[in-house]
Amino acid sequence: xxxxxxxxxxxxxxxxxxxxxxxxxxxxxxxxxxxxxxxxxxxxxxxxxxxxxxxxxxxxxxxxxxxxxxxxxxxxxxxxxxxxxxxxxxxxxxxxxxxxxxxxxxxxxxxxxxxxxxxxxxxxxxxxxxxxxxxxxxxxxxxxxxxxxxxxxxxxxxxxxxxxxxxxxxxxxxxxxxxxxxxxxxxxxxxxxxxxxxxxxxxxxxxxxxxxxxxxxxxxxxxxxxxxxxxxxxxxxxxxxxxxxxxxxxxxxx
Amino acid sequence: xxxxxxxxxxxxxxxxxxxxxxxxxxxxxxxxxxxxxxxxxxxxxxxxxxxxxxxxxxxxxxxxxxxxxxxxxxxxxxxxxxxxxxxxxxxxxxxxxxxxxxxxxxxxxxxxxxxxxxxxxxxxxxxxxxxxxxxxxxxxxxxxxxxxxxxxxxxxxxxxxxxxxxxxxxxxxxxxxxxxxxxxxxxxxxxxxxxxxxxxxxxxxxxxxxxxxxxxxxxxxxxxxxxxxxxxxxxxxxxxxxxxxxxxxxxxxx
Amino acid sequence: xxxxxxxxxxxxxxxxxxxxxxxxxxxxxxxxxxxxxxxxxxxxxxxxxxxxxxxxxxxxxxxxxxxxxxxxxxxxxxxxxxxxxxxxxxxxxxxxxxxxxxxxxxxxxxxxxxxxxxxxxxxxxxxxxxxxxxxxxxxxxxxxxxxxxxxxxxxxxxxxxxxxxxxxxxxxxxxxxxxxxxxxxxxxxxxxxxxxxxxxxxxxxxxxxxxxxxxxxxxxxxxxxxxxxxxxxxxxxxxxxxxxxxxxxxxxxx
Amino acid sequence: xxxxxxxxxxxxxxxxxxxxxxxxxxxxxxxxxxxxxxxxxxxxxxxxxxxxxxxxxxxxxxxxxxxxxxxxxxxxxxxxxxxxxxxxxxxxxxxxxxxxxxxxxxxxxxxxxxxxxxxxxxxxxxxxxxxxxxxxxxxxxxxxxxxxxxxxxxxxxxxxxxxxxxxxxxxxxxxxxxxxxxxxxxxxxxxxxxxxxxxxxxxxxxxxxxxxxxxxxxxxxxxxxxxxxxxxxxxxxxxxxxxxxxxxxxxxxx
Amino acid sequence: xxxxxxxxxxxxxxxxxxxxxxxxxxxxxxxxxxxxxxxxxxxxxxxxxxxxxxxxxxxxxxxxxxxxxxxxxxxxxxxxxxxxxxxxxxxxxxxxxxxxxxxxxxxxxxxxxxxxxxxxxxxxxxxxxxxxxxxxxxxxxxxxxxxxxxxxxxxxxxxxxxxxxxxxxxxxxxxxxxxxxxxxxxxxxxxxxxxxxxxxxxxxxxxxxxxxxxxxxxxxxxxxxxxxxxxxxxxxxxxxxxxxxxxxxxxxxx
Amino acid sequence: xxxxxxxxxxxxxxxxxxxxxxxxxxxxxxxxxxxxxxxxxxxxxxxxxxxxxxxxxxxxxxxxxxxxxxxxxxxxxxxxxxxxxxxxxxxxxxxxxxxxxxxxxxxxxxxxxxxxxxxxxxxxxxxxxxxxxxxxxxxxxxxxxxxxxxxxxxxxxxxxxxxxxxxxxxxxxxxxxxxxxxxxxxxxxxxxxxxxxxxxxxxxxxxxxxxxxxxxxxxxxxxxxxxxxxxxxxxxxxxxxxxxxxxxxxxxxx
Lengths: 254, 254, 254, 254, 254, 254
What we know:
6 copies of one chain form a homohexamer.
Chain A: E1 2-5, E2 13-19, E3 22-31, E4 45-52, H1 64-67, H2 72-86, H3 91-94, E5 98-107, H4 112-133, E6 146-154, E7 157-160, H5 164-169, E8 172-179, E9 184-191, H6 198-232, E10 241-242, E11 252-253
Parallel strand pairs in A: 4-5
Antiparallel strand pairs in A: 1-2, 1-10, 2-3, 3-5, 6-7, 6-8, 7-11, 8-9
Helix pairs in contact in A: 2-4, 4-6
């Protein structure tokens, strides 16, 4: 898993995140206004959009712009990304501003929604750091980091961070979004064509937390390097922060 | 919670389900064909659609047909309903047939997605019973019942089966879909603006299972009454099956 | 023909109307604003929308929301419903308010557009009664009742209130909308693949008026029962008002 | 009222029809196939589309292509045009062919739907004459002419063939479609904000028939001139056939 | 090439332009407002829309309104028309007004985009002349005329003003838009499946300028006749201004 | 200008091309079928799509998928990219295959359409090389390289390869697409609010050819390095091929 913060020049925050063959470009845009339902309430908002480039996948998909509508899976994922980040952003401290997070999948090999959340946190951190540096915010509205991981059950094995071929074979597929203090933001556990038991859920939660704690560590290094680079240079371009491998996979007997 | 199976005359299966002020009309349509990706595989398919009538809500909403597109929330819910029912239908036993489940909310007061799943199971049971009665299937493809319930945390209280005003105040909102044998089909736990802990998840699971077991009981009575009615009359219109109250709510101190 | 006023809790007015296997749910929403073309003119507006649930018909139809557009037949019907009701509502007495009438067909067996008009009148009566009861209007803006009926010529027979199988066989199909004083609001007579003569039109008008006068009587009883229920109870749920049969059909030799 | 048949070179049939400031271009396209619901039944089909150029009206309207959908009024009119012409075309004699009638309003000053029907009949006559001339049909599938007229009641006056300013003031507006033998194809009588009586309907029918008989005469001359022109020249361009005035208007006391 | 200015009664400016079998109806609408990006800048705007009637072509095309979207070719052409006219309109002299030019192709036989530009200039001239005549503008905002022509290379021949059958055979197809003083507004030269050389471009430019100078002459006569007609009559309908032939075609050996 | 061929793993050909702050990701997808109009003709096809990520620009733009339609500028550019590449691909040698070129702008600072063409050629070269290497094609269908450049006139200066701030100030903006042998594929010269002369066009052509010859050189190096890398390794990832600077800009007095 490699984070490349500041990949874009125009966006207030950005991060190209790579894990295996999956590459997601996260861009954060800041606007000094809020949606109608929040006007005058002194609070900000954060919303997310998600899309896949047509040839991010093994075979080319039709563009959603050409089809003229956004599909159900896309809607579901972008709602998840938005909720996950709102869990760690203090919207009152943000003030009447909107952060729009665009997660565009350049290449997909499983785990695009969790990878998007992981990179989006880094990109949001960059955007709010600029607000603090510019004196527009007294302190950061970020309460703690947030990260996500997928865990699946294939046959009898528990697999962490599913690649595409694993994901399509998984009978139980769960996504966990958790914060630095171990709080749960989102649990989504789904069985397709079978069911699972409470102890399966507990084992998946254990494995998810191990992986998420590791991702929080990588996110922190990416943000630190970026903050450091910023202090040293006028046009910061942080070096890539990578772990030597994917978060440890633990294919263990159930 | 009241189930009124056979509410519609044309549909192969149907059920009007009422809980509090929430009323969902579930209709099952049977077709002797499958989507392209399943042709020739000897298996069936089940898909669901969900919609709200414009004045099902406290204030009128614009029709999705007028807006020209189906919203993200709608997509998310109809995918959930489909997955939940596919978990208990043996698609190979169904043969190359498609069951389309339409869940239309006549009136909404919270819990429409879980109510839809509960009624949809009864409507599907009616449709497959007709296939068995007609000798088109040797045995039912239904493995076991499936039902759903929402559980929320409001302040320090755990609330089961959230009404709208409770739902909008809930800081943690979870939906559970479980089968008659206690297997989990789906767990969706979401915090908005805060997080929750593992013991919260465990307490919500306990409460959910109590409620779901009760719903399975009511579903079984509705199906039995319908089957009985069918034997006695030529144009069956089963009497409503209702519990005297909503599934017991357990507002307990955390 | 059975009227069940007050079927919905949230809507300002509502009526579930049943005739044969046809069931239409009419809901009236009241807003304190008017469309742009009427702003500042001191008059109100009434508009209608019409839709069929996908499995209201013998075989399932695709949702208009999924197709992304509203079909021609739908447009034609909802314009007819709106015009019919505006003929009996004094829009100046209504003041700068908009009544939106939603007619959703739960089950269709012919005559859905005329049934929708008949139920919509009762629902509108409930909504404006609330305005009067609340002291917001000095007197009702309803001038007189309005009702509609279809009449067809099948072979040599004149049929009143066509069921679906009759409707599809009718060579001449006419809809009449008339008020309590016998005024004509709308005459739509259509031949498909043949023509008809003036004396056919006159015979259809005679038959229509007989049926419409009977429907006005049932509408009045439904409204009265509702008004009575309201005086007696805090949460009114009027009992269903039904005629023992469909309006008399007069299959007579031409 | 002026008919200019053969206005277009590519279309199988065409007619530019002018009445007052209203100008409608009717084009008929012939295809050797039928819609799915008619395949293999040995019958043909006729369908119509109607549109207004954006600046046909006093102030410019947005194009329906830009809005991305076809409006309700457009749908209603094109269904009327199609029904009116199908009433006089013997679809079995036409064989498995489809006639598509496009009526595009170049300029509008009231009466566009009736003008479209009047011109469309001439254009269809040209298209089927070509089929007969080419030996593809043994005899014409046209049974008799069809024409349409609007009649309105403004205050106490009866007005035939309403211009725009009259139409917008009319309290009762009726369209009549009738054939050469006096058969009625369609009666649409609508009151906006008031009602009308049976004797009003009868007076409007009388006036309509006078006007329609005159239009049938003009249509016949246009078709004859075209047929004659065809015999004399290789590239026929029939001269315009016009009545010296609009069909006589009879503003009479009621 | 024939210009018929003032073809429409409602539009501020209009021109029906015919060249060979191609006929384009140009209508100019004037509004006293500008798009958002120009509000308060004291300048006007000019925009264009282009469409083809469904049976303008040899075989019928589906309406863009029915397809629900405007195609790529349509967009490209209407942007070209807008740019071409903005090159000769002094938008500051126009003041805060918008001219919308609608070019609707009644019949197409090649060269519709260039024919649209040629007619649109005449229609715009009529619209701005009305503003000057009404004293709303002190002087005309038109700097000089603008016209367009297509030139193609088919085999070894250079062809000016391509008809459809020539256009579809052309290997190099170029459109030139030039003003009265010989200034170039737009050059679009495209090869399909081959390339062309600089001397080809120069030869096409020579031929284009000869044709365009001739069109400017015809445009001037059309505008003059219209201005004259206006002085003499209250309801001007200028006589058609035509050249005896299409602009001279010069099929010369390369 | 930097070419990074093989940036994507799944696509048959790909290239990330960077010039200044502009970054375009080109992906080529190969399918063994052709559009309907080419079936059975023994020829292939090449088509292109173009899109900008929402935050590729200085301020965020709405996604075209959300707006539900593809804009005019997008259509115009993707048609240009397709034509440019078809000029150098021998579609008969390609056989009945379709190459779909997706050009997605990750970041935009002017020149995205020309940059897209330049990168697309490299990506297409990679895709067809795979077909040749796999023995599916006897020889490459690429006849010669193709590249594009923008040239503008700002005030009195001629500028090559316009950055965004230059582009928006340019009064004359031209794009040239030329092949390795100096053949012209496309010339698009546009003036906004003024005109230009023939000698301006000639000077722009001179400057364009200098720049394009240099780009052809860089394209050749990128393709060579990729071909070499392929011979040496099993999973080729060519090193980036860059010129030390943008193509030389020649701001010269006119």
